[in-house]
Input
Amino acid sequence: MQEPVLQLRDICKKFVGVIALDHVSFTLSKGEILALLGENGAGKSTLMKILSGLYPYGSFEGDIILNGKKQRFHSPREAEKAGIAMIPQEISLELDLSITENIMLGKRPQKRTGFIDWKKAHETAKALLNELGISSIDVKMPARSLNSSMQQLVSIARALYCKPHILILDEPTSCLTQSETEVVFSAIRKLKKNGVSCLYISHKLNEVFTLCDRVVVLRDGQYVSEYAQDMFEGDAIIHDIVGKALDTYEKHIRAIQPKEILRVDHFAVAHPYSYGKMIVEDASFSLYEGEILGLCGLVGSGRSELLGSIFGAVPKLRGTLTLEGKRVKVRQPADAKKIGIGMLTEDRKKDGIVACLSVRENVSLTILKALKKGVFLNKEKERGLVNEYIQRLRIKTTGTETRIGTLSGGNQQKAIVAKWLATEMKVLILDEPTRGIDVGTKREMYQLIRTLAQNGLSIIVASSEMSELLQLCDRFAILAGGRIKTIISGKQATEELLLKECSQL
Amino acid sequence: MQTCKTLWKRFWNMQESGVILATMIFILIITCVNSVFLTPDNLSNVLRSTGFTLLTTLGITLVLISGGLDLSVGSVYALGGTVCAKCLVAGVPLWISVLCGLLSGIVVGIVNGFIIVKLNIPPLIVTLGMMYIARGVVYVMTQGVPVYPLPDEFKALEQSSVIGSIPNVVVLSLVLAVLTNILMKRTALGRQIYAVGGNADAARISGINVGRTKMFVYILTGVLAALTGILMTSRLGSAQALAGQGYEMTVIAAAIIGGTSTYAGVGTVLGSVLGALFMEVLSNSLTLLRISVYWQNIVIGVVLIVAVIIDTYRRVLMSKREINELK
Output
């Protein structure tokens, strides 16, 4: 093996009450592309934050050894100086600035007079892009005019400006299509030839297998295993990522009558970030009455977009929706509400709660029409109804008049569920129902979802946590490559199988 | 003692407590210094100008709560008055003329709302443009010359009093304030306006027609601004091209001093009534104190900023306490 560039020794990091990293050690060689694999919460991003100086020296234990020397990074700037550059998950370019300005952001060369030396800036930018194998591009163009793979390459070029030895890439292909991914890969391979080492984080195993020299698997903050390129084997690695303990989850396998309530046919949805592309190309599936259907997919597979388009929150390009055997048209959420579809969105702060209003006003937001008595709202009925839901869902609040913004995340989430239960809908869509919720409330939420299904409500759940879906769902629809690839029954499903299908192995 | 304390606490928790206190303090000071303030003539003056401010402040309050802004009200004020006066001079019957004036406000409101909602252009820009356009229309119509003479029965609209000696505009603005308050507190539409301002995305997801709700507040504000202009024309006996310049700022300031949040989603009609009253008491007392008009603007500016600072910090304190209570 080649000389090690980076060694991590016994890295430990604790947050209040949680051990995020537990004696993690590994090495990275010169010119190597090392993939870091693990589920959400395995500790990958914590490790990368330590390495890039976001968690300063002293806030963790263990050593970072770079080229044989121990390093103490107090800030991202120091890590950058030492030659470690990180490219964040989401493309963070200033779209209205030129390519040069984006690459040289904050480091523009100055003339003696204090003015920017534009000539030098453009030349440097060109040279950096050249390193990535791009020569035919006008660096004076605004970044907006580039497609997403080029934008991603521009952010890599920005990182190259301080001549790093080590490049950290966090899910660089999550918004790219297959052919765009190839462009980025060939650039990374070119860097490798020039002796740059890469730490590559991704959920997409098939990409990892084609690009990386070695993988390291983390689970629950611990180093689990590593595989060299000639040892790559999907099943073994998935097994390591998932771990054994999780299969002991109690699955609730119920006998569901396959009586179709909702049918989604040939849905296509535009990509939210890159113009002219589709994130969902042709998705079809059906939902049975009283069942909980899990929608599985990796980051960037278009889970939220598909669910949003069923509900009318996201415009769809094509596709038909059939509810109880009748074709229905849903152009906006109001239409969905009318025919009995409700939705809990992914980000409750963004479009779930109205933070400055009370719990009462939030819960009744969907049923204002039903609460009308003549021209006025029937406030007594409203208060009674809201109180009923507070008790039924055990929402922890001082009363109906408490501002919802002051409640904890889990209770806000329950209030949003209450808002839809009040509408007496037939289909409930839950997008990441337990994101950012503590464990206790999570369990309550699971119980609630199951009870609702037992009472005949049909539910679609999407979650990035496979274990969560396994505990909840009766059937699983796998969304990959813009299509529903396959349907897996509750009996067959294991975390490994789901992950494998999602990764398109 | 105990009841006194809880009363005080309830008062302090009211959104309007700040402006009530400030108004009372001003009235107290001014009555001590200059006894003219409490004379019926002066009070009637203060109330009348409060009425003129309040009418449009009601609309602006709803616009601000819904997360929007309307800078065109000063020009619509002039437009409403001019359209009405032009009709009257041309011999159109009184009520139809008034209706035409109001209609001009509705048209402006619809155009504002349409561009903001359907074309998704920021309200600041749309209504700033409309401010110039409506003012321009007034200039074109009048060629800068006041429109008069107007019939006596039209002048009587504002200049006579239906109830005792209380100016008509005061009665009308209070009636409309009560109606607006009911709208905001007790109807679905009012709740929708709060929700749209608090979080438009969440409102849309909940199945609320956000566009229609926004449309409504702009149209209402247009009508109210035109109504104010018509009444002022009746009071002055002529329509002026320059009428209502700077009026948009006065009403926005009144709403904000009354506790309407510039972050949208928060505000009450009662607060805006008090805000309008405070603005007029302030300028009246400054005049009675013989403080020059030039200085008055400085005072109003300072008061506006201080009001928002106090309001912001009160809100922070209150939400901290709410969280503590929950724990």
